[in-house]
Each structure stands twice: as structure tokens, then as C-alpha cells.
Amino acid sequence: MERFGFIGGHPALDFVNTLHWRLAPSRHFDALTTFDDLVTWSSRAGILDARETATLRSDVRGVAADAVDDARGLREAIYEAAMSQDVADALAHAFTAGLHRARLTRGNRRWAWQDVELGPNTPADRLARSAVELLTSERSAAIRQCADAECGWIYLDTSRAENRRWCSASGCGDRNRARDYYRRRTAAAADTSSPSTRRPGERKP
Asked: pTM for the full model?
């Protein structure tokens, strides 16, 4: 199993997917257990550039543990907001808290949030802003959850027919197709081997 899977089509959704087998608690695998995990994922996802990655890796102190806990809390807040039809208070709280560590600046002909300083909370702050941007856009209507009963990964369905079912066709897709095929073969074999209940000479309906 790959530790980090980038199949969501958006960093905020890929961040949610750092919890593997979300719908099967007994199989949970959390890819974010240390601050280094968070920094590594953020680097691969494009949340941190190379300089920022190196700086955060060399500046790990006691607050880093709290940053991981905060990031995990944000991860669940994004998931709940993406799947909810109601409110997203937890994500709103994380978003507004992060704004106290940022300022609105103008550059490249548009306004954008810029972190006041680089710190342990920077990855989560950027992800919260990215998640809110996604969820308040029309693209949020394309968010789907993998049809596997245990997976739980989410993604943007950008297929032309808007009928993508699996996080990965070669992962959950192949596994479920193989399972369905086995069930059909087993059921067919059971029907063939079961004794007939028809009386001699009775025609099959």
C-alpha cells in the first residue's frame, strides 16, 4: 500500500485521504503520525516548496506535535464538510484561526492570502484556505466518495459522464470487480450443484 495517494484531484481531498480505510475502523492506517510525515506530504502535494520543507524539517520543536494534532483535526473537518449537506463549523473555525497568521496581499494582478511567517501550522493553514476555496466553488458538486465499502477516499469526479465510482480503477475498482466475479461464480456453482426439486417428467418453467 502506498503511504500517500494523490488521486483526489485537489490537495484538500488528497489530505483527507491520508487516512486509509476510513470506513473500516479496524483497518485504519494513518499516514500522518509525525511532523515529518506532515512536512513530507505537504512537500509532495505542493503545499510547501523546497526551501520551506527544509526549514520546517530543521526546526522541529515541541510545538510540532501540536501541529500534527491540529492537522489531523483539520483533516476530519474537511472530510465532514465535503460529505455534509448541512454546516461546516469545524472547518470554518480552522479557516478563521489560520487567518490570524496570514495577511491579504496583492501580487500578480490579484489578491491572495500570504502567511505572516513560516511555522509548524503553515501546512494546515494553507490547506484550510484551499479547502474553503474548493468547497465554496462550483467544483464542490463533483466531490465523490469511493464506492468501496471500506475505503472512504474522496475525489473530484471529472469524468465526462460524471460516473466515476472508484478512487482507483486498479485498486478498489479491480478488487471489487474481482470480488463480484467470484460471488457470481460461487452462486452459479451452487445453483448447478444443488439437487433438483422437480418431479420426474416435470418440465423446467
From this structure: 0.85
